[in-house]
Design goal:
single chain, two-stranded antiparallel ribbon
Length: 69
């Protein structure tokens, strides 16, 4: 798990390698995939949380071994 719902955003990670799946979890346990971040892409949710000074509204899960800066 890279980040989880209701956690504060601590900074803007740069994904050097790997893949992160961003999902929204429902109360019944189902998950809705919002998007995937791969090397060279940026995470719009992280940008939004940093600029808005709010906590994450979704969960980021590393699908592959990932390297971030």
């Amino acid at each position: 798990m890279v980040f989880d719902e209701n956690q504060p955003c601590q900074g803007f990670p740069l994904l050097l390698s790997g893949s992160i799946r961003v999902i929204k979890a429902a109360a019944n346990g189902r998950e809705l995939q919002l998007y995937r971040v791969v090397s060279g892409d940026s995470c719009i949710l992280t940008s939004s949380c940093l600029l808005g000074h709010v906590h994450y509204h979704a969960r980021g899960i590393a699908e592959l071994d990932s390297e971030m800066l």
